[in-house]
Amino acid sequence: MRCEVQIDLDKIRDRLFSDKTLRKKIFVDLEGDAQATSTDELTIEQCGIRVIEALRQAVSNSPLAENFTNIDVFCAAVWALGSNSRSGQHF
């Protein structure tokens, strides 16, 4: 028996960034105190984009057509692993 799981990324993003206290904590961990103070004016969509940019994990329109070097893959892995060790990312 096969069970397919679908992840609702919009719902996850909405829950993460609708709480302004958690939103600020995430951005303090990613960018430091100075930049995090401006997050109150951001929409939930803008917060999601800002996190992706901070982690340098931009989404590709056609990932299978991309040609990544070993350095590109290594850097993506380091950023992904590093993002898991941040204290603010315990959601």
Description:
This protein has 91 residues and is an all-alpha fold. The chain has one domain (9-84). It is built from five helices and no strands. The chain has helices at residues 9-18, 20-31, 33-36, 44-54, 70-84. Helix 1 (9-18) packs across helix 4. The chain is globular, with a radius of gyration of 15 Å. The protein starts with 8 loop residues before the first helix and ends in a 7-residue tail after the last helix. The mean pLDDT is 75.
Q: What's the mean pLDDT score?
A: 75
Uncertain regions spanning at least 5 consecutive residues: none
- Specify the helix fraction band: 55-70%
Number of strands: 0
**What form results from the Cα inertia axes?**
globular
Total helix count?
5
Note the beta-strand portion.
under 5%
Number of discrete domains = 1
Describe the largest sheet.
none
Please write the string of helix (H) and strand (E) elements. Answer: HHHHH
* Alpha-beta classification: mainly alpha
Radius of gyration: 15 Å
Distance between the termini: 31 Å
